[in-house]
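Annual report, structural modelling task.

Input specification for the iron/sulfur cluster complex:
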Amino acid sequence: MMCLPGQVITDLETHYPYSRYLKETFGETTYKVPVASGLSCPTRDGALSKDGCAFCDLRGSASYFGKQGRGRNIAEQLRERIPGIRERFGARKFLAYFQSYTNTYAEPARLEELYLEALGVEDISGLCISTRPDCLPDPVLELLDRISQDHYISLELGIQSFNDQTLDWLKRGHNERCSIETLERLAVRAPRVDVCAHLILGAPTDVPGTARDAALKLNAGRVRGAKLHQLMILKSSELGERFATDPFPTLTLDQYSERVLEFLEYLSPGIYLERLCATASHKDECLGPDWSCDRWTPHNRIREFLERRQCVQGSKVSDTVRL
Ligand code: SF4
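The model returned the following structure:
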């Protein structure tokens, strides 16, 4: 992993924050504006399954699409939302965030229409595209590479775990090998695309060292960023049904903080952290862990924990990885 100028952990930081990455990349804070593409995913449309991934709350994902996307094209969605964000935060630059479902799951010609429509909206500085490792065939990588020659693209890649037992338990429909091969293909075929890996920590199938192993694989995979989530159990998901009939352990906030610490210490300091934990968007739908319902307390407690333990991102990786 190249560590570019400015991408070092400062004395005041336990890790490389997303806010600094955005300032280094765009010169100022830049805001993500969610848009609904209307695309599906192979674990919803029957290609792999019709049940969804075990942690996925269809109502949660669908609600955004239902409220914000249906019947309106990408440009309309962006133009409707940008003024409010501009006014509230004094923002001037925005990224179109293709967030829900799998936003590379269509023919390249259709994807190109969607992406270029977003890029044609005034003040849009680039794209953030959420997808799965098994939905990036070569023609899609060629499209992303072509667009990335003139525009910023961040690919939010739902790796979730590098542990096959956990991937099976989550019913993801892809395995570790698929994620590693996709990272390798992205690095070669679409090198200007910034990959941000999504990971879930805390499945009962995880083994000691899971967080360290994931960090080392992201270092080797040359990702630009990472987004961490605790395993969260939502009532309307398959995990919710399993948990109701046969409860399984979830992590306390201290246990989760330990895994975040382990992850950060093995993660190259050139990889930014967009998120250290997630918040349940519908509190009444969250079955556990209960701290997932609170927005700020877990963030603050994790930060305090990292400071108390004198966390320095990348402190346990070798100099060859750090450079
Ligand atoms: S987690 Fe993503 S890929 Fe899995 S069912 Fe939900 S939207 Fe589809």
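The CA atoms of residues 119 and 126 lie 6 Å apart.
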